[in-house]
Write a structure and sequence with these properties.
The chain is an all-alpha fold and about 180 residues long. It contains eight helices and no strands. It has one domain.
């Protein structure tokens, strides 16, 4: 058996966040949230096309499948707790509605925090609870089984985040006027 390439290990472990204890999945989710905020900042700051932010979650999920597959084969474990690229991907899906609803206008920090905490908590709830199809998706082979339950948990969270954030009266981060 050949060793997984180092980039697979870096990605699979969420650049090391999967080694944090206790609860590496929670730490990995927090690191994924921070990485998403950094990505939004870079895309906006460099005036890159906004579609990059929409393409990022599925692209990350596909890279996570590759990395998780390579690492679980080398580790000899089905879904080791230090593999958190799946949490990153799930978080990015859970956060995607904020691209359409979250405002960049000055607001109380508590409102910003609430808008970020809700997707985090909902994602963690669905990732731990694993309702219905989320649980069944773990039966997929290799990296697909590692990643798809988190992607589906993120999508379930997004279904709640979207109307919740709209109710809070947010504006779209993708609105063209905000990118000038």
């Amino acid at each position: 058996m050949s060793k997984a390439p180092r980039p697979a290990w870096w990605l699979a472990t969420g650049f090391g966040s999967g080694y944090l204890k206790p609860a590496p999945g929670t730490w990995g989710s927090l690191a994924g949230l921070a990485a998403w905020l950094l990505l939004v900042w870079v895309v906006r700051g460099w005036a890159l096309p906004a579609w990059i932010l929409l393409a990022a979650p599925p692209a990350l999920a596909l890279m996570a499948v590759w990395a998780a597959d390579a690492v679980v084969k080398e580790a000899g474990q089905e879904d080791p707790s230090f593999v958190v690229a799946d949490e990153w991907a799930g978080m990015w899906f859970a956060l995607t509605p904020l691209l359409f609803t979250m405002t960049v206008q000055p607001q109380p920090w508590t409102l910003w925090a609430a808008r970020l905490v809700a997707p985090f908590l909902l994602f963690r709830l669905f990732d731990i609870w694993k309702p219905g199809v989320v649980d069944r998706s773990q039966r997929l082979a290799g990296g697909w089984g590692v990643v798809m339950d988190d992607v589906l948990a993120g999508l379930l969270a997004a279904l709640i985040v979207w109307p919740l954030d709209r109710w809070l009266g947010a504006q779209s981060l993708l609105h063209p006027e905000l990118w000038r």
